[in-house]
Batch of 2 targets.
Target 1
Amino acid sequence: MNMKEQQYVCVLAECGSITRAAKELYISQPALSIYINNLEKSLNVKLFERVGKRFILTYAGERYVEKARAMLRLEEEFEEELKDITGNYTGRIRIGVQTRRATWLLPPVVAAYEQEFPNVDVILYEGIQGVLDQKVKNFQIDLLLCNASDVRPDMKSHLMFKEQLLVAVPQRHPVNEKARYVPGDPYRYLDLTHLNGENLILAKPEQSIRQDADRFLAEKGVKPRKVRVISNIETAMQLVAEGLGIGFNREGYARHMKYAKSVNYYGIDSREGKTDFVLAYRKDMPVMGYMQRMIDMLLERGREYQR
C-alpha cells in the first residue's frame, strides 16, 4: 500500500510550515506545495488555510488528518502481519533517542541485532525530546527511548533503568561543604536551597534535563544570580569545571564524559531525584517477532547499565 498522500498531509499538519514539512519528508518545498494543491483540487475542498507562511487545518483538514492517521496505523499493522506470515523479515525499525544517550546506549545493541536480522534496516533518530515526540506523532519512530515523564498517554512503556539527576559543582566552590553523606548511596546529597544567588549553567528550556532541573529548583524556591544557557551538556560540564557556575547532569551522561578538569557530582535531596528511563511505543503498534527481539535486546542493555 502507498500512503504517501496521508503521510504528507499529516506531517504538514503537524509542522504547520511547508518548509519544515518538506525537510521532514526529504522532498523539495515546491514539490510538496504542488502535491498539496493538487490533492485539494482533486478533493474539491481546502485542507489548509494559508496564513502568511503558516498552514492551518480547516475543518475538512482536521477530519482528513484523523482518518489519515488511522489509515497509517492500519498500513503499518498489515505490513507487520505480512512479515510474520511469510517469515520475510525485511523492513525497518526506527528508534528515537536523545542525542547524548545514543553514543553509549545503542551501538552495541544495533551491532548485535543486525547479526541476527541482516535484512532489517535499523534507523536511528537523535534529537531533543520535542523533536522526537513530533516524529512519534507522525509515525516516523517505532521505538522511543526517553524519560518516563515524556511518555504520551497513547504509548506503552517498559522500564530500562533508573538514574539520578545530579548537581555538578566546581571542585573549589564553597557549596561543596554543604553536601551531606547518605548511607548506601554512591553520591552525597546537596540541598538545592544552597544554590540561591549562585550562577547556574542550564540546558535550553525544551531539553528534558532543563525541565527536570527547573522543577527541582522551583520546588526549593531557588533564585539564581545569573543563568547561562548551553544546549550541549558536555560543554556545560566543562564550563562548570572551569568554575563558571553550577549545573546539572544526568547520571548516565556523567558516566560517559571525560573532562580535562573534573567536577563534583551530588544527588538531589528529593524523593523524586531519580528518573525512570523507559522504552516506549504506541499501544496500537503491532509487535511482531523481529520487533520484539529488538525490544528485548534494548531492555537487556538497560539492565546491564543498571548493574
Target 2
Amino acid sequence: MGETAVQAIIKEERPDAPLRTETFRRARPDIAGPDAPELPFPIVLSGTVQHGFGRGGKDLGCPTANLPDESITPMSSVTRTGVYYGYAQISPEKNGQTILPEKDRNVMPMVMSLGWNPFYKNERLTAEIHLMHDFDTDFYGHHMKALVLGYIRPELDYTSREGLIEDIETDKRVALKSLARPAYEKFKSDSVFDTT
C-alpha cells in the first residue's frame, strides 16, 4: 500500500504529492473500493470539532470539520494520505446544552482529506471532514464521530484552485455512489453512532 501517514511524519518533512493531471481526471472511476469494506476499514475517529484554516467553505465551497491532531492517530497509523469516504455524526450538545436542530443530528455521508494539503503548503498532517449536508449553523466545539470505510484517491498537488475544486466535487460524487452499496450503507446504523 505504500508508506503510512505516520511513517511520512517520522521523516520530519512534508512529502511531495504528485501533480494532478488531465489523464488522472479522465481515468477516475465512479465508485471506489471493493463491494464491502476491507481491513484496515472501518476506522473510528472521534473528537471535538476545532477551527481549521477556514479555507474549505470560503475558498473551495466545501466546508470542513477539523479534528484535533490526536484524534487522527488511528487513521494515520494504518493508511496513507489521500481522500477517504464514510459516515459521520455531530453531537447536538455543546457545553451541556442541546444546540443542533433535529435535521442536523443524523448520520451523514462524508469525504475526508488526510494529508498536508500540498496546494496550500501545510506544514502538518490534518484530517478535514466534509459532511454532505447543509447545516444551518457551524458546529465548532461539538463532538464528532466518524467511521472511515474506504479510500478514494491519493493526495495530489494542483496548479489551480479550479482543478482542486473540480476534484473535490468528483470526490463527493464518488463517495455517495460508493456508500450506496448495501455493505457500506449498513454502517449508517453502526453502534458507534447515536441513532436512537
